Amino acid sequence: MFDSKVSSAEVIAAFDEHFERRYPSRTAESAALLGQVSGWSRAENRAAAAQLTAIGELFAYRLSRCAECEEWAVDTEAAVAAEVAAELRISQGLAASRVRYARALRERLPKVGEVFKAGDIDYQTFQTLVYRTDLLTDPEVVAAVDATLAANVARWPSMTRGRLGAQVDKIVARADADAVRRRRKGAAGREVWIADMGEGLARLEGTLFSPDAAALDKRLDALAATVCAHDPRSGEQRRADALGALAAGADRLGCRCGRADCAAGTRPAAGPVVIHVIAEQATLEGAGQAPGCQLGADGLIPPELVAQLAAAAKLVPLVHPGDAPPEPGYVPSTALADFVRCRDLTCRWPGCDHPAVACD
Length: 360
Fold this sequence. Notes:
InterPro entries: DUF222. This is DUF222 domain-containing protein. It comes from Mycobacterium scrofulaceum. By secondary structure, the protein is mainly alpha-helical. The protein has helices at about 10-20, 30-65, 75-90, 90-110, 110-115, 125-130, 140-150, 160-175, 180-190, 210-225, 235-245, 280-285, 305-310, 335-345, and strands at about 190-200, 200-205, 275-280, 290-295, 300. The protein has a three-stranded antiparallel beta sheet with strand order 3-4-5. Helix 4 crosses helix 5 (about 110-115) and helix 7 (about 140-150) packs across helix 8. The longest helix has about 35 residues, at about 30-65.
């Protein structure tokens, strides 16, 4: 019989350790094969970078032979895209995309390009870096961001595109001196509007602060889940109807199953929703410039908005474990679990961006 005082997690860990000793997952043969897989992946990355380098050189060559001024670069880009499309037998649109990335590698992010040429990042990662830095116009800012990304991006191989984009956004936010003005201008344009569509329907659109939008999204899901399993509406329809219930101040959505034994009345009402935002103490006090992070979302929250939200939010200090000794047992303490989830934001499995608050 099992000792009831031992947690199920510790039992599972003991079984895992036992089977790993009996049937090790890593052997000399598997290690050699995985080494080949990794080696060919790096070779693929180097080949992709080499192709972009050649396309960039072709663009520079065609541009240098133009008798016109540099404003003709757009026409040169289209002409080179046509050549690349014919050579690779791909569409004009895809070829134009390759030319744009080739120019970014050569002209905007040369240091990141060197990391790409070494095989340390893949084409998809390079695409994300180019896209997330595309709005920067100041050459000094672009150069600073290029250097910072080149020094760090090789250490982010398992991030999803969304999480990688958020990481790049942090670097851009620190380097871009004009970001605060643009953020304030964007925030000033937030609004909600309703348009009559006729036949008893209306269209609702708007722009909200991202934490407010996340809270509304969760609240609609919670209200939509208060009906019984026999409600005939789709999930999308229940969410739409939940907005009306929310406007009426209701804590549950009326069920439309029509059954005498409807179980909706026995279900708990929709409770309050919680949105987790992580920020530095200085930012909360309105003196810092570091943006906040919202668990389960890719984007960043501007520091000025973090300070505004903090004025009415419940604040929970996050304690760094520092040099504390390892905790006993298999299951971490609540404080350590909170720190790890806030540090990682998402699942640590490569390519998974499931919110850390919903992970084991």
